[in-house]
Amino acid sequence: MNLKKTITTIVNVLKDPAYSFLAIITALLMMAISTYLLNIPLIISTIAASWDWTAKIVLLFKLLGGAITNNTPSTLVLQLLTSFLGGINLALAIHHWREQRTVNITKNSASVTGMSVGILAAGCSSCGISILALLGLAGVITFLPFKGLELSILSIVLLTISMLWMANQKPTCALVEKKGVKP
């Protein structure tokens, strides 16, 4: 694998405004989802309340600020990195699908798994436990030496591997012939 060529491929895909926009929106959505997952009871009671809709929307936006104040610097950096890599992964996956009209289950499953683990591992370790408790995994976190930061690191590793795999994907022969380029 040629790292320079891989980075060039990623940059070239992200130079397209549509893919850049998709990557940014995906990253923002991942950050919002991971923040909102930590506040599900408050969100439900806010939506169900008889308040004015503007007050509800203001509260929901102010909850996003909680991502900065609630997290330690290390978890915030890991959460931002996971969201950023998730956005790039989705942009690359859609670009790859549009170019080749094929989906590689192995590469896409690493991306989906990385994004999912990143969202579930969000927040401080005590908050992450509450999210993982929905899956019956709350006790597992207590045995990890860094109290859940390993999940964020695992997510970043999976997203990076998936991104590198997709960026190194060669066009199929049918695609090359279809575009009139000699292999």
Jot down its keywords.
10 helices, 183 residues, mainly alpha
The mean pLDDT is: 76
* Extended strand count: 0
Helix content: over 70%
Structural class: mainly alpha
What is the element string, with H for helices and E for strands? HHHHHHHHHH
What is the straight-line distance between the termini? 19 Å
Low-confidence stretches: 172-183
**Count of the domains:** 1
- β-strand percent reads under 5%
Please count the helical segments: 10
Compute the CA-based radius of gyration. Answer: 19 Å
The geometry reads as: globular
Biggest sheet features: none
Description:
The protein is mostly helical and 183 residues long. The protein is built from 10 helices and no strands. Helix 5 (73-100) runs antiparallel to helix 6 (105-120). It has helices at residues 3-15, 17-37, 40-48, 53-70, 73-100, 105-120, 125-133, 138-143, 149-167, 173-178. It has one domain (3-169). Mean pLDDT is 76; it is low at 172-183.
Quick overview of this protein structure:
The protein is an all-alpha fold. The chain is built from ten helices and no strands.
Task: Lay out the secondary structure.
Blueprint: H1 3-15, H2 17-37, H3 40-48, H4 53-70, H5 73-100, H6 105-120, H7 125-133, H8 138-143, H9 149-167, H10 173-178
Helix pairs in contact: 2-4, 2-5, 2-6, 5-6, 5-9, 6-9
